[in-house]
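Both lines are retained for reference:
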Amino acid sequence: MKALVYGGPGEKSWSEIPDPTIVDPRDAIIRVDAVTICGTDLHILGGDVPEVQPGRVLGHEAVGTVVAVGDGVASLKVGDRVLASCISACGVCRYCREGAYGQCLGGGGWILGHTVDGVQAEYARIPFADLSTYRLPEQVPDEAAVLLADILPTSYEVGVLNGRVRPGDTVVVVGAGPIGLAAIQTARLYSPAHIVAVDKAQSRLDAAKRFGADLTVLADDDPLEVVRSVTDGLGADVAVEAVGVPATFELCTTLVRPGGRVANIGVHGKPATLHLERLWIRDITITTGLVDTRTTPTLLNMLVAGQLDTAHMVTHRYRLDEIVEAYDVFARPAETGALKVVLTRR
């Protein structure tokens, strides 16, 4: 088969490699029907995730059709159409029993495209298939479903739920890329008074307006002044970091009010300065997190019910064998206007 293979920082290729096989009774093999590229994949290519070794197939977000199952798989059969979650779960370790699947001790967690081969390929092996896939209703198209593999549960769990967004809050989202836009959309479920989006690109701020931000500000202008103008000078109740660089994290800590919460979603490859000398006296709570995907069934139900709009998230579409071009477009959003790119077999 062909797959997108990581060759080390800055290196990738659409290469021929052996087909995946069942190596554990709990595995399933899927034919990849739709896949997307994540900002984390760009962090890998930038050398920010050293655990990923050259030769690894990248990708952790896919919709596919089951073509083989191991003897230990109870809930899937050949021909099932499934969402392959970005998080794999053994189901029996302490963390899985608590619903913290991202911290799985039994060989799961974020492994696809990280410590085992991922899904940016014609076929993929899905470990712990019973707990790491979701059968999809016929009315949910591949393009919509693939966004439930990572960005929607990540933004919802690590941003909105960790940030404890409540009715009447002012929420500032720093970074209006796909994760930030998904955070804006899912924050709206809690009826905040204001959602402020901050980004360097005007095109992404325009997208933030479409997804529910009522205020937008360019990062090089004065985000703090905009936030203070709608909070009686106090600052935001919740600041969501959705980029993964030191400057945006540090900005978030300046935008929150005393007693506020900073919810960090971004994948950081470099240290950020934590100004405890200023933060401790202001009672600031800072949360981090790897998504657990425990909310995926809820989000899928909302998608089926029409309560989540994913149609405007996808801006570019490619065939799977055009993935190198798709990476180039996705990596230059200020020039290309790319939000999410989706690649399909057809």
User: Anything to note?
Assistant: The mean pLDDT is 96.
